[in-house]
Amino acid sequence: MPKWTVRTEFTFDSAHFIRDYDGPCGRMHGHTYRVRVEATSQKLHASQYCPHEVMVADFKTLRWAKQDVSKGGLDHCVLNEVMPAEYETTAEMIAKYIYDETKRRVPVGVQLKVAVSETPNSWVEYEDD
Description:
Layout: E1 4-16, E2 29-41, H1 59-62, H2 79-82, H3 91-105, E3 111-119, E4 122-127
Antiparallel strand pairs: 1-2, 2-3, 3-4
């Protein structure tokens, strides 16, 4: 059975603080977040931008989070004000939030993996079956 995998990487700049954290991360601060999204499918799909079934998922759709907050993304926002309360603003929960939101936007059957980094040498990955 065929299988396609597409990957994209992007950055966005946002501020956040971790609620009740005893240390510097409990104060408002910012990061340039680096995000990797991997999408895998056994069939190709159309998208809102292309009516032909020729892609796993549109790269524009996979990179939604890099858009300015005024356009529905996460760039130049305070994550604590934009993300729903059930998502704390740790790298782990930011990865889950981006995964959950991306999953809503891609065709059914597309498997995702999302990796988020707050610093050049620290990453978290999230995927769900």
